[in-house]
Design goal:
The structure is a single chain. The chain is α+β, with helices and mostly antiparallel strands. It has two domains: about 250 residues, 3-Layer(bba) Sandwich (FAD/NAD(P)-binding domain), CATH 3.50.50; about 80 residues, 2-Layer Sandwich (Alpha-Beta Plaits). The strands form four sheets. Strands 1, 2, 8, 9, 10, 11, 19 and 20 form an eight-stranded mixed β-sheet that branches. Helix 1 runs parallel beside helix 7, helix 7 runs antiparallel to helix 8 and helix 8 packs across helix 9. Bound molecules: flavin-adenine dinucleotide. The site of flavin-adenine dinucleotide (FAD) has 33 residues, from helix 1, strand 2, strand 9 and helix 7.
Length: about 400
């Protein structure tokens, strides 16, 4: 994997976006290194829905059949409490080859990408953290910290992660897919703008009786937002908005209390497969990178989970970056490719986050898919505006 070819791109961060970008680059014949400061892919399912457009991208890299075999198809999302009577986002009416959301938990999706990368001869280099970089001419010199576990001693038992070494990688490009606290973004000095206030959610996943049809629902009530998603393997995910700053363990009793509070008619859950509390602050980077360092995924934008948008937006970026980097052999083309990438992605995210002047223009051009417009409507309603209905 470390052959002697000069490295075209160092991809920093092996979340779904970095994995997808590295795979797309490798399939285009580019020499790629993919590092991650973690020890493995996600166990938690976090992102669960792949959009029709993401499925088309997966088809482009030869993975759609495997994904379809693992996932669950959801042709419609019911919206309740937003604008008069309940309405639905009908993906089945779309002209896409994949007219549905595919529910595929993030961990499984990442596993799929890791296996495909291995077939291309690329291994994720875990325990490697991008510490910094500098540029000379058209090459970037990247400092990589090697991390390892170290026992913490007598007073506090357990293991802590330590720097155990350092190496360097030279590359023509860096792709910062290193998530919300991106080192690449910070090293470039790119600012972050918050676009809405912080919101907090409790998330529960649990098994249900076989053969029950579960509708995907996003519901707005006085308490805030809640959503229900069917998962493969007869499981459900529910998320409930809770006051920011709530803490403490959450268990099945809390889920039952939430179901009662939200008047959800269903058999009461008796066990949980996963639960978590999380806070989200929607926002976006002021730029998508600079020169030979490009940002994609959560390093460039952050939104709330109900719109099932962040990872999907990141996959579009990963595909664009891979094609632009592969196509732009000379420096002149490369600069134009970056400007084009940055402008279109910032416009789209301003639209989806409901900020900026791009909104009207994007809508007029009809360039935003239904899922993007669904997300924009959600963001508007969270920000206090009345949402309209989403035509597909
Ligand atoms: C509950 C929940 C539900 C969600 N549902 C959806 C959904 O249905 N659809 C959707 O589109 N999105 C959803 N999201 C959002 C989605 O999970 C994220 O958008 C997605 O994980 C972002 O992928 P990423 O690859 O950009 O970043 P991440 O997944 O954050 O990966 C970044 C990686 O970079 C590594 N890293 C960080 N710093 C460094 C460094 N210096 N050097 C090397 N490696 C580094 C990290 O270890 C990490 O592995 C959800 C999120 C949550 C929490």
């Amino acid at each position: 994997m470390f052959g002697h070819r000069p490295v075209t791109a160092l991809v920093a961060g092996a979340g779904p976006v970095g994995l997808f970008a590295a795979l797309s680059l490798a399939q285009r014949g580019q020499s790629v290194r993919l590092i991650d400061r973690g020890v493995r892919t996600n166990f938690e399912s976090y992102a669960l829905a792949l959009h029709p457009l993401s499925l088309s991208l997966l088809e482009g890299i030869g993975l759609v059949d495997e994904a379809l075999a693992l996932g669950l198809r959801v042709p419609r999302v019911m919206m309740e409490g937003f604008d008069g009577n309940p309405w639905s986002v009908e993906l089945s009416a779309s002209s896409s080859r994949f007219p549905f959301l595919l529910i595929l938990p993030q961990g499984r999706f990442e596993g799929l990408l890791v296996r495909a990368l291995q077939k291309e001869g690329v291994e994720v280099e875990w325990n490697r953290s991008l510490a910094g970089f500098d540029q000379s001419g058209d090459r970037l010199h990247c400092q990589i910290d090697h991390l390892g576990d170290q026992a913490m001693g007598y007073a506090v038992s357990g293991m802590s992660r330590m720097k155990v070494g350092r190496s360097r990688i030279e590359a023509s490009y860096i792709l910062g897919t290193d998530g919300i606290w991106s080192t690449v973004r910070r090293e470039l000095g790119i600012g972050w703008k918050r676009t809405a206030r912080e919101r907090a959610f409790e998330l529960y996943e649990f098994p249900v009786r076989e053969s029950r049809e579960i509708l995907a629902r996003v519901i707005r009530k006085d308490h805030g937002l809640m959503s229900i998603w069917p998962l493969p393997g007869n499981r459900i995910r529910m998320t409930f908005e809770v006051p920011v700053g709530s803490d403490g363990e959450i268990g099945v009793e809390d889920l039952r209390a939430r179901c009662l509070e939200h008047e959800i008619a269903m058999d009461m859950p008796t066990e949980l497969s996963w639960s978590s509390r999380m806070e989200f602050v929607p926002g976006m980077a002021e730029s998508m990178g600079r020169d030979r360092c490009w940002l994609a995924g959560d390093s460039a934008h952050r939104t709330l989970p109900q719109g099932v948008q962040s990872m999907n937006g990141g996959l579009v970026e990963a595909a664009l970056v891979a094609s632009r980097i592969s196509d732009a052999a000379d420096a002149h083309l490369q600069a134009a490719a970056f400007e084009d990438y940055a402008a279109s992605r910032l416009d789209e995210w301003e639209f989806m986050l409901g900020v900026g002047a791009a909104e009207v223009e994007q809508d007029r051009r009809g360039s935003i898919p239904a899922t993007g417009r669904l997300h924009q409507q959600l963001m508007k309603s969270w920000r206090g505006g009345a949402p309209g209905k989403v035509a597909v």
